[in-house]
Write a structure and sequence with these properties.
42% of the residues lie in helices and 18% in strands. The chain has 254 residues and is an alpha/beta fold. The relative contact order is 0.15.
Length: 254
């Protein structure tokens, strides 16, 4: 059995065939799926999904790209919703320097506020880091993020950063890029990270793994990620699936 630790089933890409997508996930061995709500609309949809499906859990927060849109009321709302028994984390939050919608200082302030929120509610934090590793790590250290821990999702940094984040009580999560033909760094990370700190995800509908690259991703494809990591590590798929599932249950307390 597998757990997709990061999926956006609340996205409009699933409006037409959500039931079929969930059925395929279950057929491919998914025990649980964790849906990420990271703005007002997707958080509202996340709350609907966790009520409707026994095997779907939620993480809620505010995405750094949209940091400029986040209000004090939004953060208060997130904090209130986080009391739900099936909300298992805060995020995704962090920094994204690829897009320029939200100024860096606005992103950094919101990142720190969500770290504080996660501590108040006692939930792990799910980190989005795109082209911002140095600043992201600096904030995590300054805010004593080790006190709550969490996930660096869709990990794209180097082995040194992986070691640092693991030392701070975080897990490293890998998705579709580990299956890409010329993606050396994710493959190196897949072997480097200790098995008890490794998670698998899809980030669907994005980052679709080979051989479906270019098409819409879905949680069933997390099996392709797990199979590739098992191959790279020279271990059985069953053992890799078992280990990453136990890691996800431990982190998310599910």
């Amino acid at each position: 059995m597998l757990i997709d630790t990061h999926v956006h089933l609340n996205a409009q890409q699933y409006d037409e065939d959500l039931e079929e997508v969930i059925a395929r996930a279950r057929e491919n061995g998914l025990e649980k799926m964790v849906v990420i709500g990271c703005d007002r609309k997707s958080i509202e949809r996340t709350m609907e999904l966790i009520e409707a499906y026994d095997d779907i859990y939620g993480v809620i927060g505010w995405h750094p790209v949209d940091a400029i849109d986040c209000t004090d009321e939004d953060l208060q709302w997130i904090e209130e919703l986080s009391a739900h028994e099936k909300i298992v984390g805060i995020g995704e939050t962090g920094l994204d320097y690829h897009w320029d919608k939200s100024p860096k200082d606005v992103q950094k302030k919101l990142f720190r506020r969500q770290l504080a929120l996660a501590k108040r509610v006692g939930l792990p934090i799910i980190i989005h880091n795109r082209e911002s590793t140095e600043d992201c790590m600096e904030i995590l250290k300054e805010e004593n993020a080790h006190e709550i821990g969490g996930i660096m999702h869709a990990f794209s940094a180097d082995e040194k950063t992986a070691d640092e984040i693991i030392a701070m009580n975080f897990y490293v999560s890998l998705g579709g890029p580990v299956t890409f033909k010329n993606a050396k760094l994710p493959k190196d990370i897949a072997v480097h990270v200790p098995l008890d700190r490794l998670l698998v995800e899809t980030d669907a509908p994005y980052l679709t793994p080979h051989p479906f690259r270019g098409k819409r991703n879905e949680p069933a494809h997390v099996k392709l990620v797990a199979e590739k990591i098992a191959e790279l590590r020279g271990m059985s798929y069953e053992d890799l699936a078992s280990a990453t599932t136990e890691n996800a249950k431990r982190l998310y307390n599910i």
